[in-house]
């Protein structure tokens, strides 16, 4: 019996939700992809679980870092056409897989009602261990659990419906970034300047990095080669999970 061909992602969706742990996570891994979505008319919302208050490489007082990074993320989002940026306010570096986090992500899913959710992979990538920050993996797993079964099950977290009027919602596909089993690449060559503009908004995180554009370009060129794109192209890669 011949196996069916692998399912491809939807060519276009009306709404997409990106759920990431820290300000700048979406921009390093996915800002080019997001730029292609917004250019095609998709409404994109960012849900950032922490304020990134444990980040930074200078003498900025800790109490100022969270608000600064929120503003940086809003500026980065605007660079790729995203205006709806939400922060859940969890502590940076201390995320755990809890029912509360699942509920809070489920709430945003039911509010936004996206056909597509982008998040980080819950799997550790041993060849790129820096991509597997514990917060990233926790958010990826929490988001997958929120997508299935929580957000689509009217009887999960019943207070979301009873108290907030948020009806169940089924997300069709999830895109996992920084995954060791990526199976889909997005050519971002034509929007790479927008990605760089987004990244450069994160001044507290990248001001110490020499030649950021060269570093990120090399990274994306390697991804493009891995997926057999033509020479000179740049790509971001994801593991696409179909949930229906």
UniProtKB/TrEMBL annotation:
One record GO biological process:
glycoside metabolic process
Which Pfam families does this one have? PIG-L
Q: Which GO terms describe its molecular function?
A: hydrolase activity, acting on carbon-nitrogen (but not peptide) bonds, in linear amides
Key words of the record: Zinc
Give the protein name, as stated in the record. Answer: N-acetylglucosaminyl deacetylase, LmbE family
